[in-house]
Design goal:
The protein has 3 helices and 2 strands, in the order E-H-E-H-H. The protein is mostly helical. Belongs to the short-chain dehydrogenases/reductases (SDR) family.
Amino acid sequence: MTTQTPVWFITATSSGFGYYTALEALASGHHVIASGRTLYYSTKWAVSGLSEAMREELASFGILITDAEPGAFRKGFLVCGGGDLLGGYDSRV
């Protein structure tokens, strides 16, 4: 009988729960496929794409589609958990 090493796919591993889950899995001899904020950004992009498609499809019916997409803003959570993720981030601003 062949035993296989478990493989974990863990998102949001730059800090917090995801980070510690990845460390525990690795410490147990498991393999880890990790992403920092990929899932967050990809779902944000998906909502944007869906909104654009709906906007075009529904325009002929007089239905307007608006989506709110807040961008990056200067808050401590970007620095405290995963280090300086914004590169030239200035916490004094």
